[in-house]
Amino acid sequence: ASQLFKNGVVNQNVIGCFCSHYLIIIQFNRSVAAELTQQVRLLCWVLTGPQFLESRAKHVHATWGKHCNKVLYMSSEESDFPTVKLNVTEGRDQLYWKTIRAFQFIYEHHLDDADWFLKADDDTFVVPENLRRLLSQLNTEDPLYLGRRFRPFIAQGYMSGGAGYVLSKEALRRFVKGHDDGSCTHFSDVEDMALGRCMETMKVTAVDTRDERRRQTFHAFPPDKYLLKQLTKSQPSHLLYEFYERVQGPGCCSDLTISFHYIRPVEMYMLEYFTYHLRPYGYKYRFNPEPRPNVINKGFLIKKVLSSSKIM
Amino acid sequence: MLSEGSSFLKGMVLGGIFCLVLSLLGTFRAGIPSQIEHLHHHLKPHSKEELQKLSQTQMSELTEQVRVYCIIMVTPKILVHWAAANDTWSKHCDKSVFYSSESAKALEAVDLQEQDEWVRLRKAIKHAFKNAGGLRWFFVARPTTFAIIENLKYLVLVKEPSEPFYIGHVQKSGELEYVEYESGIVLSYEAMRRLVEVFKDEGKCPERSKALWKLSEEKQLATCLKYSGVFAENGEDAQGRELFNKKSVGSLISDSMAQNPSDVVEICCSDMAITFTGMSPSQMQVMMFGVYRLRPYGHNFHDSLTFLPPKGSDND
Fold it and tell me: How does it sit in the membrane (chain A) (predicted)?
């Protein structure tokens, strides 16, 4: 309702009608991406440290960080950057402690600021719009856990840390509860596998994040590792952990890819350029998925209007 | 005897110094930055708003008219790049023909049986013009260049191919403005027709130059075109960003990170860029994904024209 009047002038993107006792406001001419940003709130937290702020975190912030509804940089120290100071020390063996403390921090301070919670490394590249599309068909009150699914150690699989993984609100609650009541412990410093164990213990479901053509959306390596057709017969090592059937070549990766990992700063800006800027004029893409029906439905719009009392 | 000898020597020394100074001055002049002498034309695409005013019929006609014949100059020495171009960007040309210095068993090409680069270029141009069919735009490149043909079409969309156009990244050498070969050369049908005509004139446009210092093919091409009244135009977008690049994406970004750290991508690189150069075959495969597939869901572009993906291709 507040959008009906923008700067004192009627917003041309909105028309209203009094139809059978309800004021129904229909929004058009707004891009689907803008709609999704409002409706699927994503909090991104980036695992980083004081020694990587200049060399890595800065470039995350200059590229995909700003496409999240909220972005937090988790470190062991406070800085101007800005970072969140967690009660941890630096080091590869501290990564799972950092993860636990980060999720606890978010649970305590930001639970209501978002619907979904993404963890990424400072060398992960993420396309939040494509993540929102995936999430828009799911319910955040369900215990769900999404990412690039790996197979060993955990029966339902676990999500690669570097490719980034997402917890629903309920999954986050269960993760924090698990560490509170001792169901989950710091039994290993392998962050992604240990978190996967906790998810399994707390009965959080691992989701298949492949697109409609069974192409992967989260990637644990840079694009060239998957896109090039391998000439050797032996299976490349990075595909040995895969939960789903391994695909090498153009079928590896969804058009609506969500993440890549081991991305150095130059490649961060390159991926930003390819994703958001460079495009072939007039090109009819081969993959044109239908918009997910749950995103904009009458019920949601009507609810939105009734709950705002500015007009009625 | 001695005094004559010393005068002769003095003369020789003076003459030598004079020659040295002249040649130094010559190189110094070529180094003058282009801001001082800025004569070449800047060619930009029509704005998207203007394009939306065109009718459906006009749009169909333009789709026909804007088809591109790609002339790709290869040698067996660069076989991997040849194969890469064949499997990537050249599939988006309406017709792509590879012209080779000699035949190679692995890949199909028109064998020009010629080692000289300028003669090869002339032969390729003549062949392409003769076999153009209904195609009215021509793009000359080496396979080390990566081209986004749809954006080439967007650049020339409302330009008349029956008028002479010679477009690319323009450089200046002395008085001559020429399009750099490395970042690709665009020629309209009329420019091609005039070229084929002036090729017959051994005086203005010799096939094998008798000069002591041979000009590069790009400069010889520019000279021949200049004699036919065709002048080089620099391809740019509405913000003045280059559309034809003789660097790779990575290289441009790297430079931009150093020069414009707070706005890396916006300043250096056009949304509608046409060419990049110096990329490896692997980088070209990744480019295909980056250009033709990877995108964020939900952003709407209301382009006036539609270009369909090529048949039988799996990487775009």
Answer: Single-pass type II membrane protein
